[in-house]
Design brief:
9 helices, single chain, 3-stranded antiparallel β-sheet, alpha+beta
């Protein structure tokens, strides 16, 4: 049965490739990638919470990570092995997830390398830096692996030790993000986050190790999934929205701000801000504007008027339109075209 399932998956992959929906299927080695076997309903037996695969006399000795729903009947069982040599069983069942009771609490979330996230309520959740805590152990295991001859038994043992350290880091990070995303979704009816380009940030001069250790992209995917499950609303704010440089009290926009600034005073109203808390407050305000207006907005930039009044190639001047541009369009002067709705633009 697992061999037949492999052929079915290969057929689906080539069908998608011929329909120009995906790329050509890639070969996956069982040595360096996750090896798995999928069993359909006729290839296993489920009785009194015990799983027995075909051609096995005794049920599998499973250490359950969670309990299955009551009266659940598995339709597919997938047995997989990760790079650390650990075996996992994934059971597919059909169930219904009930929506949580409606609440009026809303929160804006600002991500950062020092504090993993900062909430608009003023709470800061520190970055646990799971990779940094095990950096010494990982370095020693990788040095030992580099000294082994490739293809030898000692090389295989050293590779498993490196994989165990990576698995330890990934498991602790995943567990923390699961608990954090569950808490945010349970406590708030609407969660507002920034649409960050994490892949692009990893390619420039930002602290890439701290960004990778924070795993913002995985936190976002968990929030999206749990929001759909529990009937919550997740709002994305445009990545070009200057949340850190905008005063949440009067709306004054600074020209620039260094990343190492820990507090700043608004020259317009004299309010002293923590950059992270101020950014989370502005993100929440932008998310409320998105929900109310139906489109994404961001504050007007000072160079917008000059950008709109520059003469066009045909010699005609563009009409000056006050307000903010839509979410998804880059700010003027960064190589993108300015997007406008049919009803004009909206200002915060």
């Amino acid at each position: 049965m697992p061999l037949q399932q492999c052929l079915r998956h290969l057929r689906s992959a080539f069908t998608s490739f011929w329909a120009k929906r995906t790329r050509y299927p890639k070969f996956k080695s069982r040595k360096h990638h996750q090896a798995s076997a999928e069993y359909t309903r006729s290839a296993f037996r489920w009785h009194d919470g015990r799983l027995t695969r075909t051609k096995m006399a005794e049920p599998l000795a499973i250490r359950w990570s969670r309990h299955l729903p009551e009266n659940a009947e598995p339709s597919t069982v997938t047995v997989s092995r990760d790079t650390a040599g650990r075996w996992h069983v994934s059971i597919l069942v059909e169930t219904m997830v009930e929506h949580l009771p409606t609440t009026t609490t809303e929160v804006g979330v600002d991500a950062g390398p020092t504090a993993l996230i900062t909430l608009s309520s003023g709470e800061k959740i520190a970055n646990r830096r799971h990779g940094k805590r095990d950096h010494g152990r990982l370095a020693r295991a990788q040095k030992a692996l580099a000294r082994k001859q490739k293809g030898s038994d000692n090389h295989a043992k050293a590779r498993l030790r490196v994989a165990h350290v990576h698995a330890r880091i990934a498991d602790r990070r995943r567990d923390f993000l699961h608990k954090l995303s569950t808490r945010l979704v349970r406590e708030n009816q609407m969660v507002v986050i920034e649409d960050l380009d994490v892949r692009g940030m990893m390619k420039n001069r930002f602290p890439t190790r701290a960004i990778g250790d924070a795993s913002w992209a995985r936190l976002r995917s968990m929030l999206e999934c749990r929001s759909r499950w529990y009937g919550r609303e997740l709002v994305l704010v445009d990545r070009w929205y200057p949340s850190t440089k905008t005063c949440s009290a009067c709306g004054h926009l600074l020209d620039r701000m260094s990343v190492d600034v820990r507090d700043w005073t608004c020259p317009g109203c004299g309010t002293t801000h923590d950059p992270d808390i101020d950014a989370a407050t502005n993100i929440l305000a932008a998310g409320r504007a998105v929900t109310a207006c139906g489109v994404g907005v961001r504050p007007t930039r000072r160079q917008s008027a000059r950008h709109l009044t520059q003469p066009s190639p045909r010699g005609r001047k563009k009409q000056e339109v006050p307000g903010a541009s839509l979410v998804g369009s880059p700010p003027p002067g960064r190589g993108g075209r300015r997007a406008r709705s049919s009803q004009g633009e909206i200002s915060l």
